[in-house]
Write a structure and sequence with these properties.
InterPro entries: AAA+_ATPase, ABC_transporter-like_ATP-bd, P-loop_NTPase. One of its GO terms (molecular function) is ATP hydrolysis activity. It comes from Pseudosporangium ferrugineum. This is ABC-2 type transport system ATP-binding protein. This protein has two domains: about 210 residues, 3-Layer(aba) Sandwich (Rossmann fold); about 60 residues. The C terminus is likely disordered. By secondary structure, the protein is an alpha/beta fold. Helix 3 runs antiparallel to helix 4. The protein is elongated and about 65 Å long. The longest helix has 18 residues. The protein has a six-stranded mixed β-sheet with strand order 6-7-8-3-9-10, with helices on both faces. Helices cover about 30% and strands about 30% of the residues.
Length: about 290
């Protein structure tokens, strides 16, 4: 039965968290609608893992709140969440079969037949101990454990990083089947644009612990343009919401928040990669500014 909820699957409001003097998250706010596939994009150290741990109820942020289907993230929300951490934590001494059996004992909505099918599709040997599996296979097993829980919200921290190209395609297919068949909401983190292009319908960009962009992918692409021209012309775009600009010799390119071209520059719609890299490279939390080109 599909997981049907009318509330936002994930509601992050004013979340901040520090580890000693280091601020990992700073006033992060965004909403993930139920049924969406959302990419959480950022460089290494941007705060993606910290944010996903807060969403999973494994970390209580210093400030703000996180709600999952209307419940404050924590014990009450755990049955609705499937979470795969970056290092796929599993019990290394258990076999694959024992790991799946443990999942059945711990999760009331566990789908044993689905778990077995996913494990067979991933060619996971039942008798092999988890600690002897290659990193890619351990990652596949961790994903099986999360999916077979039949969660309403699936939180995946760099799920494709340890996988070879064939396994990436298989995992992406399994995720899309889960979304299509059950309406599962997925939030997956990545710093590789190719992993999410064509997969996600929403995107959240994190940089230095702050949300730089949170939007529907199609809408974001339709409301941004890339300007290309002489550096002096691009630098003269005063009053335009310039997200990021770069000089290459005498020429320059700029990612601009605008639905219509301005002036006589050459313009084109950004690719998803151009859009995300522009926000990731933008030096400040506020993208709208006058730009000076070197």
């Amino acid at each position: 039965m599909p997981f049907e909820r009318t509330e936002a699957a994930l509601d992050v409001a004013g979340v901040g968290h520090s580890f000693g003097p280091r601020r990992a998250l700073d006033d992060c706010s965004f909403v993930v609608p139920a049924g969406a596939v959302t990419a959480l994009v950022g460089r290494n150290g941007a705060g993606k893992s910290t944010l996903l741990r807060a969403a999973a109820g494994l970390l209580r942020p210093d400030r703000g709140r996180v709600r999952v289907f209307g419940e404050v993230a924590g014990d009450a929300s755990l049955p609705a969440i499937g979470y795969v951490g970056q290092h796929a934590p599993l019990y290394p001494m258990l076999t694959v079969a024992q790991t799946l059996a443990l999942g059945g004992r711990l999760n009331p909505r566990w789908d044993a037949a689905y778990a077995r099918r996913l494990a067979d599709d991933a060619a996971l040997p039942s008798g092999a101990r988890v600690g002897t599996l290659a990193p890619g296979r351990r990652a596949r097993l961790a994903l099986v454990m999360a999916l077979a829980k039949r969660p309403g919200l699936l939180l995946l921290d760099e799920p494709l990083a340890p996988l070879d190209p064939v396994a990436r395609t298989e995992v992406t297919g399994a995720l899309m089947a889960e979304v299509a068949g059950r309406g599962t909401t997925v939030v997956l983190s990545s710093h590789v644009v190719a992993d999410i292009d064509g997969v996600c319908d929403r995107v959240v960009v994190l940089a230095d612990g702050r949300v730089r962009l949170a939007a529907d992918v199609d809408q974001a692409l339709a409301t941004h343009l890339v300007a290309v021209g002489a550096g002096s012309e691009v630098g003269a775009l005063d009053g335009t919401a310039i997200v990021e600009a770069r000089a290459v010799g005498r020429d320059a390119t700029a990612l601009v928040r605008s639905a219509e071209p301005v002036g006589s520059l050459a313009w084109h719609r950004p690719t998803l990669e151009e859009l995300l890299l522009g926000y990731l490279r933008a030096p400040g939390p506020e993208p709208e500014r006058k730009v000076t080109l070197a």
